[in-house]
């Protein structure tokens, strides 16, 4: 009987030892698995919400992200303001090609080119972000000529541009300032429409900038006219 009891005790001890080993191994595996899962969760990429946000904006080299959110007023603003800006650049280039232009007027004309060129690029980037065709060409709006664009607020006609081409010296500077004042006033009107009716935040912000900049330039041109 004593031998039987001893064997039974040994068997029970071995069983308990094996169970303990099994529990230690399982514990190690459990800790390892938990650690791996935690690490994976920590290093996981951005959530679906972030991915969705990325698809709603386009990053460009012409002023940063452009939201896909837009309405017809935003599209119209860009499509109309681009040729409007293009004509302002053209008028300034006509003036700068002349001799004997007062320095302050020539500097102003160069400033118009420097400011409105990048804005044209920005608006074309907006159109592309919205799935619309960019407006290209010196006349803009798909080959529309100056006479056809004369109906746009502040746009010069062919006759207006011919008069600027033919003027010289101080008279050319005076005519440029008078024409550009009317041109700027038209741009401000168009920009106000965008602020009131537009939806895209970048387009509305650009329109607000146009209003601020061009109203200040109108006051500057009025002063230059008095100085001529």
From TrEMBL:
DUF305 domain sequence ranges: 74-225
Domain of life, per lineage: Bacteria
Pfam family, one: DUF305
Keywords (A to Z) from UniProt: Signal
Signal peptide range in chain numbering: 1-19
Lineage: Bacteria, Bacillati, Actinomycetota, Actinomycetes, Mycobacteriales
This protein's name: DUF305 domain-containing protein
InterPro entries according to UniProt: DUF305_CopM-like, Ferritin-like
Keyword Lyase: no
PROSITE patterns in the record: PROKAR_LIPOPROTEIN
Residues covered by region (Disordered): 26-67
Compositional bias segments (type: Low complexity): 30-60
């Amino acid at each position: 009987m004593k031998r039987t009891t001893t064997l039974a005790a040994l068997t029970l001890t071995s069983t308990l030892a094996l169970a303990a080993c099994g529990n230690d191994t399982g514990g190690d595996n459990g800790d390892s698995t938990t650690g791996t899962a935690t690490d994976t969760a920590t290093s996981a990429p951005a959530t679906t919400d972030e991915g969705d946000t990325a698809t709603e904006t386009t990053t460009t080299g012409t002023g940063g992200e452009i939201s896909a959110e837009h309405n017809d007023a935003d599209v119209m603003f860009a499509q109309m303001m681009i040729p409007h800006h293009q004509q302002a650049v053209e008028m300034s280039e006509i003036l700068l090609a002349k001799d004997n232009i007062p320095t302050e007027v020539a500097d102003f004309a160069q400033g118009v080119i420097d400011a409105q060129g990048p804005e044209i690029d920005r608006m074309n980037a907006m159109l592309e972000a919205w799935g619309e065709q960019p407006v290209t060409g010196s006349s803009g709006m798909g080959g529309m000529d100056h006479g056809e664009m004369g109906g746009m607020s502040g746009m010069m006609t062919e006759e207006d541009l011919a008069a600027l081409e033919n003027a010289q010296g101080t008279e050319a500077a005076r005519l440029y300032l008078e024409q550009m004042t009317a041109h700027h006033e038209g741009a401000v009107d168009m920009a106000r429409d965008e602020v009131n009716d537009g939806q895209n935040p970048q387009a509305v912000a650009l329109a607000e900038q146009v209003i601020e900049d061009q109203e200040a330039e109108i006051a500057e041109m009025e002063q230059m006219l008095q100085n001529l």
